[in-house]
Write a structure and sequence with these properties.
Blueprint (H helix, E strand, L loop, with lengths): L3 E6 L6 H16 L3 E6 L23 H11 E6 H6 L11 E4 L1 H9 L3 E5 L1
Length: about 120
């Protein structure tokens, strides 16, 4: 059975260390062969838009665009439907590889056999 990890990140630039930890864990897991599903919710929703990750800075942390590339290379990134709607973000707005999906899909992923779920 393939190891699977679902991570929900609720923090963005408002809580940079928590945000960076979520992306870092997701990227490391993906690079390690773990099937990763990273969910962007709350303030992290903005990182689904082109160029937004490049604006994020945290000393001694890997650049967010590099982490996103690593996650997309070995996993999936999903933007919360309601979070996208509250920010007027549509499928046409997000970076390639990011999907928009809701709570039902999150629950399906998180409750599947062999899945570890984390929330940051």
């Amino acid at each position: 059975m393939t190891k699977r990890l679902v991570i929900k990140v609720t923090a963005g630039a408002d809580a940079p260390e928590r945000c960076s930890q979520a992306f870092t864990v997701a990227a490391v897991a993906a690079a390690s062969g773990v099937a990763v599903s990273l969910w962007l919710t709350g303030e992290s929703s903005w990182f689904a838009l082109p160029g937004r990750a490049a604006e994020f800075e945290l000393p001694h942390a890997a650049p967010l665009p590099d982490l996103i590339d690593g996650i997309l290379a070995g996993g999936r990134i999903t933007l919360c439907t309601q979070c996208a709607a509250r920010r007027d973000i549509t499928e046409a707005d997000v970076i390639d590889g990011v999907r928009i999906a809701g709570a039902q899909v999150f629950v399906q992923e998180a409750m599947a056999d062999g899945v570890q779920a984390l929330v940051y």
